[in-house]
Amino acid sequence: xxxxxxxxxxxxxxxxxxxxxxxxxxxxxxxxxxxxxxxxxxxxxxxxxxxxxxxxxxxxxxxxxxxxxxxxxxxxxxxxxxxxxxxxxxxxxxxxxxxxxxxxxxxxxxxxxxxxxxxxxxxxxxxxxxxxxxxxxxxxxxxxxxxxxxxxxxxxxxxxxxxxxxxxxxxxxxxxxxxxxxxxxxxxxxxxxxxxxxxxxxxxxxxxxxxxxxxxxxxxxxxxxxxxxxxxxxxxxxxxxxxxxxxxxxxxxxxxxxxxxxxxxxxxxxxxxxxxxxxxxxxxxxxxxxxxxxxxxxxxxxxxxxxxxxxxxxxxxxxxxxxxxxxxxxxxxxxxxxxxxxxxxxxxxxxxxxxxxxxxxxxxxxxx
Length: 368
Ligand code: SF4
Ligand code: SF4
Known about the structure:
Layout: H1 7-12, H2 25-30, H3 37-48, H4 56-63, H5 70-73, H6 81-94, H7 100-112, E1 137-139, H8 143-148, H9 150-162, E2 167-168, H10 178-182, H11 186-201, E3 207-210, H12 213-225, E4 233-236, H13 237-246, E5 259-262, H14 276-284, E6 289-291, H15 309-312, H16 314-330, E7 335-338, H17 341-351, E8 356-359, H18 360-366
Parallel strand pairs: 1-2, 1-3, 3-4, 5-6, 5-7, 7-8
One iron/sulfur cluster (SF4) is lined by residues 12-13, 16, 18-20, 37-38, 41, 71, 75, 77, 79, 81.
């Protein structure tokens, strides 16, 4: 994943019509031409060709990208701009150039095995986490569900238990590596991946289930790409819950008579192409009327939380969250549902007094 791999993107972006500028999460908020996909590729071109020396300002522009992939969805050439940004961040980190807040995430992950710097010993202190030596399913909770949104972790756990699934949490779960991998800290991310890979593969489970879009994308795509393949199939909780419904292991006993709209997490939607599973779940909840926001599926606007931006540029992240809440309110929905603890956290911060925000797993668990 060295930056050379992206030579075409870096060269050809310069002569394109640049429609991606008009959708870029950070560019449309900062109103800066440099903080757009094209601007970032131009900086990469200058850095790779020795025209520009990396500076603090360049780091700002690079770390204001949420790696949401909205640019790629709007690029005629389908260029992987989040890949360019991640590769360039990694090169700069290797040269010792660090964004202070991103560096803190990596230090926290090394020391406490989570990007928040919370005590590792407290990882599952808010969860009734069962351990089982011969599990059918490994329940990979993730740092954000463990420390910040334990209600999501608990909802998935309730569903697994209600369905009688033989699951376990890991004896010693570490951060999946996603936030620091996106921030350019590859060596540190690989250490986390290696640890989790060894723990997961030693269990011989058939399936790994996670409620987090970031963990899902990382376990499913980055682990094998970085040389840490997992033996079990990785499923997002929304996919696994649907399987439980199809197998008649859970059924709905209660209703939610409300209009609901759904926010696609970037790492579950654009990066993993899972658009239907969460919508299908919502439509099956008795009483729910699902309505779409104007920007949905591959065109969904980012909540602002991705790529470490919530930690590095919280004010930009907050504006992205605000925009998404406004879009949700325009549909007339009473509930804004999503499928990722990062998104839930960001959307709640932006609009908790204006709209109810839930993870889809929480809504399902409420109705069993
Ligand atoms: S990312 Fe795609 S649309 Fe944007 S400037 Fe580059 S080539 Fe053009
Ligand atoms: S990934 Fe998102 S924030 Fe980054 S350049 Fe593309 S559209 Fe902008």
